[in-house]
Each structure stands twice: as structure tokens, then as C-alpha cells.
Amino acid sequence: MSSVKLRGVRKSFGSVEVIKGVDLDIDSKEFVVFVGPSGCGKTTLLRMIAGLEGITTGDLEIGDARMNEVDPSKRGIAMVFQSYALYPHMTVRENMGFALRFARVPKDEIARQVEGAARILALEPLLNRFPKELSGGQRQRVAIGRAIVRQPEVFLFDEPLSNLDAELRVHMRIEIARLHKELKTTIVYVTHDQVEAMTLADKIVVLRDGIIEQVGRPLDLYDDPANQFVAGFIGSPKMNFLSAQVKEVGSGGVTIGLVNEGDASLRMPVAPNGTKVGDTVTLGIRPEHFGDAGQGGADLTVAVDVAEHLGSTSYIYANTTSSEQIIIEREESRSEIGMDQVTVSISAEKAFLFDQNGVRLR
Amino acid sequence: MAEDALETRGRQVTRSNLARSEQFNGWAFVMPALVLLGIFMVYPILWSLWMSFQVGRGMNFSFGGLANIIRLTQDPVFLRALSNTMLFLAVQVPIMLILALLCASALNDSKLWGRGFFRTAIFLPCVTSLVAYAVVFKSMFAQDGILNQMLMGLNFISGPIPWFSDPFWAKAVIISAITWRWTGYNMIFYLAAMQNIDRSIYEAARIDGVPAWARFWYITVPMLKPVILFTTVISTIGTLQLFDEPNLLTQGGPSDSTLTLSMYIYNLSFRFMPSFGYAATVSYVIVVLVGILSFLQFLAARDRRR
Amino acid sequence: MSNPIALLGRTAQYVLLSFAAFISIFPFFWMAVGATNTSPDIVRGKATPGSALLTNIVTFFTSEDLPRVLFNSFFIAGVGTVLTLLVSSLAGYGFEIFRSRVREKVFGGMLLMLSIPFAALMIPLFVMMANLKLINTYQAIILPTVASIFIIFYFRQATKAFPTELRDAARIDGLKEWQIFLHVYMPVMRSTYAAATIIVFMTHWNNYLWPLIVLQTNDMKVLTLVVASLTSAYNPNYGTVMVGAIVATLPTLVIFFLLQRRFVEGMLGAVK
């Protein structure tokens, strides 16, 4: 199984640069997920690895060999497409064996490989059907089967679950995770869904506007985001961001006051990193990290807009005095039912502080 | 050091193999068509443009400047052919397209009984061989033929209509023949486009209480506008080039009353003593007319969109 | 259907369609009946089957070297259709899949040429064929019609509905571009080809003006020319010509009915 290396990779369409210099190491057998909002360049980056898009500048290595100019079929990759891209005029069997036919593999060997892949994916009863006779989930499995048959060094997945309904998506997600365990290949997986990224990845690559914002293990990104963008992108529901003003800068940290919240101030144990008194900063706190009133560094009283009680968890959508919307998550809580106002606390250890440019202050 | 080497290599913006092969393949796929079009279309167009400034008979010609254009304005036969062609265009194209649109909207109804039969039947005329339908029409429109008998039987007319010997009725024969042949063809375009319109739009309009005629006029017609424009342009081009029907049904007669521009070009080139230069000039009249009319139609379609 | 206005609408719908269908089909009926009648009967408007069918068939089939004429027609239409579909679909695919600024300009220029009437081309084409000594040959008939701008445009429109991910998948599966065209594009787009086959075969088979100019000897004549010359005689034998008309119509009818199901599908793809 191969590693993948990207060095200073850039891509322009005409005068528009969509990938603005990417350096990345993907280790052998690693499950790497590219995640980011639409238009961030994640699919383009995947297609560049596949050889479907040219690389404007920079280098791509797969298994220690430079691949920039190598034909897609000779890169040792296989790809699963968002629309599955099954050939509609061929049966499942022909779809899965198509690549081998053009690699001049003998017929009986093709049959053996196809049967093998079909067994892994429980596709044997479907081998003689046409794609239009299959359900969405079955098509998805055939697309994966077609990739497996080629015995690639690297699997590429382009938003493979986005055309499935919610239930099937969870099911296929688990199937893909199982498959990775079984096949032990390198996988590069593109998605816009951070839940897929968190559950599947060994390593997440967060992209925005053609630039890597952060690379790391899923929980590291959750616990220790590098900037406001990553903090907001990873985690569900999203992290709350509150505007704040720097009141005091000392050796032990920065003291901030929340805008329009009167005396409520919080001392964050971070290095100021050039931030001065009076600067506007952003305080980030995840919905699940609000404490009960009086238990943290600062209390915040908010007006309840809508409350959703799901039994084990409750989500409270509320507005601060300066009309910033926040979400509060509560476990096994019944006390907020019917209340117009809620007071919660923010503790410095659970909160993050970002400067005006969105860079995290540590 | 290694990093630096990589940097420099990376900065050279070279066209990748991929981009080069895309370019190569792009030209390779279109080349056969372009070569053929170059030989059998572009070259003849340029040749006839040059010819239209030549005067003389047969293969002996000399530069005549604008002589051919002056001859056009004084040539009664040309003016007759031009007015005939424009009349065919102005009468036939609107009738045909409206009929096609009506038939298509009547057919665009999944609850309609016998839908497949009607669609096939109305489309069938355009599948026929041109010469075959010419002979059929010629015999049907004969002086004592089936059509006159039917019309007289239904008491629409008292005596037989002289279809081919009266200038007015000869034109009517040509117009009904073309309309018969091409209405179904245009209808299929409309029908295909109508089936692409989301059914729920009509359902929403019905719930909003929009009557059927308004659904047709305010939903179907605007959404079909690109197809209507397309068929209008195609039909205009077809009618301006009209040759086969008059040549087979009326031979341009009686007394040139159904002579079209294309027939006149043919006569100038192959029937009389060939006058290629003048014929080329007449053919450019059609090119100019098609250009002007297509442009006006595009303009009209755009204005209505505003 | 309790609503009287709706009932009225439905009635109008059926009246319109029945009328249109009657008008459309009657000439076919007339052609079939005419083939069984004598010429005077046809001109007299006799709409019932007669007994002259055999005589008409014999007269028509002995009027010219008909096997030769039929061969010419089928050969020209068959070869012409295959070449037109191949060349034009290659170009339509090429223009849509491999985009470049220069080719877009070329395509725009081509669309402008769509409005050039054949009448404007026939003189120079005739002179060109004469210079190339191709007058009275199959090539002279077939070659000028092979690259059809209309069919190229049609294929380009239809290709917009061809999923590009299929091409990507095929590239990863190791197919060269021509193999993708042959093994993926052509089978996937069969409906488009079916619709185009009807249109293209019809144009080649029914072509009249250009053969009239270029084909000059009897052994090269095509069916349209034979039927036309029988029709434009001063006093045509209608019974015989009706047989000819049926022979000239049957092939296109057969092709239409064979491909009809795919035809509407194919048109649908092109109009989108």
C-alpha cells in the first residue's frame, strides 16, 4: 500500500487559482478525509491525485514515484464517484470487470477477481443486473466493488454518500469503515459532512479557498482547533461565537469582557500575541460546554427563542442581549422547559479565544 | 536544498501532458467534420461569393463588378420568385408552427386515450419520401380528383377548383403540401420540450385557479420559447430554400406563380444556358435574407423576455 | 369530468387531434388505394380498391433497371447515414467534452453557416465535382452531406446530458479517448443515435435536388429521380407511380417504426 505526497501543489483554471499551494503527507494505510465547505477545492484536489485534472505547479507522489504526468489508470488508484458513474449499458459483472478487460487480463482471472470483490460486498446475487435495476445503496456498493477489483494502492472517494438518504448513509458509513479495516489500503475521502469526517478519518484535512486550514486527528481538531474557521466547522451543533473586548492584558493571560454583558468578564490563560486592551476579539464556546449558572468564570443570561427537547439531549436556541444567536446543549435536563430566560456559565478552560483575523490565541 | 530544487521546478508553469492531450483529442474528434465542412461548405461559399461578381455564360466569364446586383433589380422573374418565396414564408411558417403547438399541447396529456396513435399519425408525413408525397398530392388535387369531389360532396364549393392552373390555388397547394409534411416534425420538438417541464408547475397553477388557456399562454409558451425560436429559424431557412415541392408539383407554374428563389437558381444554372455568376448572386440573396430574418427573430425573442 | 368547461376542452382536444390525424394519414391511404387502380380512375378520385395492382407493379418494375436503382438508393443512403452519424457525433462529442476557446469560436462560425442555403452551394459544388471528375459517382452524392452542421449541433446538445463522471471513470479504468467514445459514449447514447438515424437516413434517402444535378446516367439513378421523372411526365401513369411512391416510402417507414420508441427519448435529450 502506498503513501501519497503533495508538495507545493497549485491549480489554476485560466486566471483563477483554485488550489493555492498544498503540502500534505498521507501515510500508507491511512484513512484521510478532505473536508470543507463547497467550493473549497477538495474535489479538485482529489481529482488532481486521480489524474483527472492536471497539476499547474507542484509535485504529486504516490508510493514514492512522481505521478504528475502519469495516466490515471497507471497511478495505482481507484475512484468511487459521487454519482457512482456506473456504466448504464453494462451489468454489474461487466461494470466491475471493465477496467481489467482493458488491462488485457485473461477472462477467467477477471471472473475470479469480480467474484472475490462481490463476495466482500455481498453483491453475488446482483451480478447479472443492470445499474437501473439496483437501489441507491446497491449502486454504491457496486461502485466500491468496481474500485476493489482493480486492487488499487490508493482508494479515492468523492462524496460517495451524498446521494443516499440519511439512514442508508449511516449504514454505508459503517460499511466503508469496515472495508478499510479489511482491505488495509490508503483511502482519500472527500466530504462536506463533518460527521463523516469525524467518524471515518484517521486524519482530517480541513480546506478553505484552496488552502489547508488544519490537518490532524479528528479529536485533536475538536479539542484544539487552529483557528476560528476550523473551530466552527468541526463539531455539531456548531461552536458559538461571541464578540468580546479585551479589558486587560497581563502576564497570566488576557481578561475580556463580553459586549453588552455589563460586568461579566473572563480571564483567559492565553498569550496576548499582539492583542491590546480595547481590541475586539471572539470568544468561542461549544454548545455542550456551557455550565450551570455560577459554576464558571462568567455568567451569561440569554433569552430563549426555541427549545428542542429530544429526551437525552436538549438544544436551546437563544439570543444574547447584543442579539447574537447561540445554541446551548443540555444533557438529561428538564429544568429549562417553559422558561423565557436561561443563565449559563462560561469557564475559561473550555472556551477558545480568537483574534480579529480568526487566529486562535493560545 | 532539496526543498529549493522542488520549489524551482514547481514554479515553472508548463502545460501538463493532460492539458496537451485534451487539446490534441479535442481537435482529433472534430477534425473529420471540419475538413469535410471546409471542402464542401467554406470553399463553395467563398467561390460563389467571388462568382457573384462575374458575368458571362457557361465557363466563360469576366469580372463584372456590381453588374449582377443591378441586373437583379431589373429582372422581373427574380422579383416574382422573391415575392413568391416571401409569401410562402409569411403564410406557411406561422400556420404550421401554430398548428404544431396546438397539436403538441393537446397531446401533452398523460390521460389522453390513443396518445401514441395520434402522435405517430401526425408525425408520419415527415417520414415519407418527398417524391412519393408529391405524386400523391398531385393526384389528389387533380381537376376531377378526390379532393374536389369531397369538397363538392360537402357542398363547400359548387364547381371544381382549378388547383394547378390558377395562380392563387397553385400557391395554396404548395402551402398545404409543406404544412402537411412538416407540422408533425415541429410538433415532436414541442412535445419533447413540454415533457421536460416539471408537472408540478401545472399542478401549482391549477391549485391557484389559473384556467387552462392561461396555463398554456403564461406557462407553456414562455417555457417553450427557446424551442419555438429554434423551430422558427429552422422553418424559415427551410422555406427560403424551398425547391422540391414546387419543382415536383407545379414546376413553378402557372406562369411563374409558384417559382421560388431556389428554383430560379437551378433554372439559371442547369436549365437555361448556364449563368453561374448571376445564379450565385441570387443565391446570396437567400443568404442575406436568412441572416436578416434569423437576426430579427432572435431580437424579437429577446425583447419579449424583458 | 363533471365540469362542463373541462368536458368541452376534452372534446376540442379529441376533435383537433382526430382531424389532424385524419389529414395526416389520408394521403397514405390514398397511396395504397391508388396502387390498385388505373391512372384514369385515380384522377377521377376513385377511393375504393381496384384490380390494377399487378399491372401497376409490373409496369413500374419494368420501367427502369429497378434492382440497380434500388441498390443505388440503399447504398447511398446506408453508407451516407453511417458516415454522417460517425463524423457528426465525433464532432458533437469533441466540441462538448473538450472545451477550448478556439473551438468555441469555430463552433459559433459553424452555426452561422447553418443558415447558408443549399442553393448557394450547389453551383460551386457542381463545378468542384466536375473538376474532380466525380460527376455521376456515389462519392459526389455522399461526401458533401457527411458533415452535417445540424446533426453536429444535435449531438452536441445531447452530449450535455452525458454524465462526465462516466468519462472520468473510464479514464481511471484505463480507456483511451477513442475507446471511451466507442465503448461508453456510443452505447450510453443509443437513443440519441436512434433519433439521429431516422433524420439522417430520411435526408439521404429522400435527397432529390443534388442527385438530380450530379447523377446523369440511368445506371446511377436513385429511386427519387425515377419516381420524380414518372410524376413530372405530361400525362403521368398514376397507378404505376403510386407503386413507386410506396417503394420509396417503405424503407423510411420501417426505420421509423423500428426506432420510434427511442426516437422521442432521443429528441427529449436534445431539447433539454
Any overview of this molecule?
- The complex is a heterotrimer of chains A (362), B (306) and C (272).
- With 362 residues, chain A is α+β, with helices and mostly antiparallel strands.
- Chain A is built from eight helices and 21 strands.
- Chain A has a six-stranded mixed beta sheet with strand order 6-7-8-3-9-10, with helices on both faces. A six-stranded antiparallel beta sheet of chain A has the order 13-12-11-14-20-21. Chain A has a five-stranded antiparallel beta sheet with strand order 15-19-16-17-18, with no helix packed on it.
- Chain B has one domain (75-305): Orthogonal Bundle (MetI-like fold).
- Helix content of chain B is 74%, strand content 1%.
- Chain B has a two-stranded antiparallel ribbon with strand order 1-2.
- By secondary structure, chain C is mostly helical.
- Chain C has a single domain, classed as Orthogonal Bundle (MetI-like fold), CATH 1.10.3720.10.
- Chain C contains 14 helices and no strands.
- Chain C starts with a helix and ends with a helix.
- At the B-C interface, helix 2, helix 4, helix 5, helix 6 and helix 7 of B face helix 1, helix 4, helix 5, helix 6 and helix 7 of C.
